[in-house]
Amino acid sequence: MTFYERNKTYFIFGFCVLIGLILWFCPIPNGVKPEAWHLFAIFVATILGVILKPFPMGTVSLLGLAATTATGTLSFDDAFSGFSNDVVWLIVFAFFIARGFIMTGLGSRMAYKVMSALGKNSLGLGYGLVATDLILAPAIPSMTARAGGIVYPILKALADIFTGRSHDPKMGMFLTLAAFQGTTITSAMFLTSMAGNPLIAKLAHDNGVEITWASWAIASMVPGIISLIFVPYLLFRLINPTIRQTPHAKEMASERLAQMGPMKPKEWIMLGTFILLLALWIFGPMFGLKASVAALIGLSILFITGVIRWKDALEEQGAWDTFIWFATLVTLATFLNKLGLATWFSQWVVSNVSGFEWIIGFVAIALIYFYSHYFFASNVAHIGAMYAPLLIVAIALGTPPELAALTLAFFSNLFGGLTHYGSGPAPILFGSGYVPVGLWWKMGFIASVANIFIWMFFGGIWWKILGLW
Question: Which pTM does this prediction carry?
Answer without folding.
Answer: 0.78
